[in-house]
Amino acid sequence: MHDSLNAIIASLHDGNRQRAEALVVQALLDEADPVAAACEWAARAGEPALQTLLCRFVDEQPAGIVAKQELARHLMATEPVPWAALRELAPWLADADVATLAERADGIADPRAAALVARLALFHPQVMRSWLDRYPQIVVNVLPGAPDAWVAERLQRYRQRHDVGALFQLAQIRSNAAVEALLGLTELAGTELMQMLLEQAGLVPASRRPSALGAGWRAHLQPVGATPHAVGATPHAVGATDAGEVPVCPITGTPAQCVLRLQRTQLPLILRANCDPAFFWYETAYEPDALYMQYTGEGWQGLMTPTAPGGAAPAVYPAATLAFSALPPHGLAGVAEAGEGIDQLGGYPRWVHPEPLPCCARCQQPMPMLVSLNAAG
Question: Is the peptide bond before 223 cis (omega within 30 degrees of 0)?
């Protein structure tokens, strides 16, 4: 590992973070227990950038929660506080450690401390709500599951100021009181705005069915070849996979790539489907920005979309499998930000800009989000 360490540090000093991250993964996957090895290495690392990369690797593994929490406590006891490394571990912290870090970050004029607080709020909203007076900027992240008093306050703000932003906050509380409050806004009934609000709150307006597949699970990309007992390898295939017929751009004829195939019987949710879902990706400067495929029992066919046999192409994602860990009980709130995406199964979409759920091209029913992958990953 010594040679790997020198190469990683050299890459960091050269500003080649992507190569350094690849070297970290490569070195750790040679270990019998990559999570334990990464935690031990991060506890001894003197280079802050290396420490952060190691903690990022640890965060991407669904196993080893106790080791992650012990590493976080070790880092919390060091000076100066490694805010960036602790931010990577934020989803796994015990409630008491979340509160301790919120206390220590208060008044710290360091953007890395602010980033840590925001991530703590995203994954531990029930703890961080009590810190809202000190960190008002985290209000959106702590909305899911908020008390009914928050519903009434946002409804009043909308009625007094016509503040649509207050309605989007109300929707992301995702409680029965929030849904009832939205349904009471009869002046918005039937509008696209109401559709988006109710879908964010958890309800499809027309059918009154749930708009989300549960609260959601975080999806962890596991490199192929990783030790199964350490990282929870699964049969879900990420990367360029063989899917037979693929959709093509109707203008340029550019074929799409199958970037993900899920095995429905191995998911932590129940799908009413008779096939294993597949996801395609293509890049083109022309509309449409989405193409629709349907599984017929004899294979995939396009819905008003031309198809062609899939061919060899550079992989959009490296070969990997997916493993899952549960998200907070009411899902994640907020919007997607460049470079801060979260790979996710089920739950609520985090839009860059709010949008209605896309509808099936055949039955016109809204489609709940099944998977989102972080393009920056």
Answer: no
Which backbone phi and psi does 260 adopt, to 5 degrees? Answer: -160, 135
Q: Which helix (DSSP H) or strand (DSSP E) does residue 122 occupy? A: helix 111-123
pTM over 0.85: yes
Strand-pair partners of 254: none
pLDDT of residue 6: 65
Assign 240 a pLDDT band (cuts: 50, 70, 90): low
CA distance 61 to 268: 17
Instruction: Spell out the alpha helix ranges (H) of 133-183.
Output: 148-161, 164-171, 176-183
24 or 150, which is more confident?
Answer: 150
Q: CA 364, CA 8: separation in Å to the nearest integer? A: 51
Which pLDDT tens digit goes with each residue over 211-230? 999 999 999 988 775 444 34
**How far, in Å, CA of 292 to CA of 362, rounded?**
9
Other beta carbons within 10 angstroms of residue 234's beta carbon come to 19
Residue in the structure block whose two tokens are 């996710």: 344
Give every CB contact of residue 358 below 8 A, 6+ residues apart in sequence: 290, 366, 367
Query: Which is nearest to 266 in space by CA: 227, 298, 237?
Result: 237
Residue 207 corresponds to which amino acid? S
Give the pair of three-digit tokens for residue 52.
């952060």
Question: CB–CB of 263/249 below 8 Å?
Answer: no
